Structure formats: structure tokens, C-alpha cells
């Protein structure tokens, strides 16, 4: 259902003020594709933006990751409820680490975040 994810980093507090949550945000080449579930470290290594933190003394070069806020984006189409149905659907996020804020844009009323 959710196959295409991208992510971007911002200084703490900057993502919301720059509109990272807006549906019409222009996602340029600064937004990288990422596998979900997955992790930022591995994706940045594969994109050539970070040295492997698990090799030699490279961990010191990845400290900056903890000083940023990370925004993920995806889109999907929820199935339409059957005619006359009050069926509700749930959008479940497994494995969120530490803290997360889930935003939704133009969400149909039959989709309940959890």
C-alpha cells in the first residue's frame, strides 16, 4: 500500500516552518528515496552522503544525524468504502523510533490514524 517513501533532514524546528508537511511541497533532489521499514544511516551511505558509520572510526562523522529532524513523505489512495458502509480503516505505523508526529493531508473520513 505504501511503497514510495522519501525523506529529508532539517535543522530542529525548521521542517514545519518550511512546510515539509504541505501536500504541494516541491520535493526536489534533496529528498531521497528510502525503504520503510529501513534506516537513515544505511540510506545515506548508499546515496554517498555518509561514510559507513559501522566501519573504522566513521561513527564520529555521523553525529550530526542526531542533531537534525527527519521528515518522511509518502502518498497513497485509501480504498473507497462500500456503498452505505460505515467501515473504518486504520493506518498503522510499526517501529517508529523515539518520537514521531504523523500528519495527513486530504485524508478520507473513513481512515483513522493509529
Provide an overview of this structure.
There is one protein chain. With 114 residues, the protein is mainly β. The chain has one domain (5-113). It has two helices and five strands. Strands 2-1-3 form a three-stranded antiparallel β-sheet, with no helix packed on it. A two-stranded parallel ribbon has the order 4-5. The chain starts with a strand and ends with a strand.
Give a brief description.
With 114 residues, the protein is mainly beta. 10% of the residues lie in helices and 19% in strands. The chain is elongated.
Structural class comes to mainly beta
Helical segment count: 2
DSSP strand tally: 5
Range of strand content? 15-25%
**What can be said about the biggest beta sheet?**
3 strands, antiparallel
The residue-averaged pLDDT reads 81
**End-to-end Cα distance:** 16 Å
**Oligomeric form of this entry?**
single chain
Taking all Cα atoms into account, the compactness measure Rg is 17 Å
Q: Which consecutive residue ranges, at least 5 long each, have pLDDT under 50?
A: none
Spatial shape:
elongated
Helix content: under 10%
Estimate nothing, just give the exact number of structural domains. 1
Give the spatial strand order of the biggest sheet. 2-1-3
